[in-house]
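Chain A, query sequence.
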Amino acid sequence: MQSSLSRYRMLAKRWAWLVALGIIICAGVTYAANQFITPTYQASATLVLSVCTTQSTAFDCTGKLTEGWTDFAPKGGNLH
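Chain A, predicted structure.
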C-alpha cells in the first residue's frame, strides 16, 4: 500500500501539465488584454534631495525639505 504522501506526489506529477497550461493561458490572456486597454492613469515622481552637514540643526534640514514640498502641493488645499 502506498503512503498518502507518495500518492499526492504521483497526482501532482500527473496533473502538473494542467497547472502549467493554466498559468500559460492566464499569462497570455493578461498580456493580450494589456495590449488593447488604454492606460487610465499616469504616475510620476520627483525626488527632492537636501544636503545637511554635521553643523546643521535638524530644523535647518527639515525646513529645506518642507519649503521644497510647497512647490508640489496643489494650490487651494484640494488634495484629490
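The chain has a mean pLDDT of 76. The CA atoms of residues 45 and 72 lie 11 Å apart.
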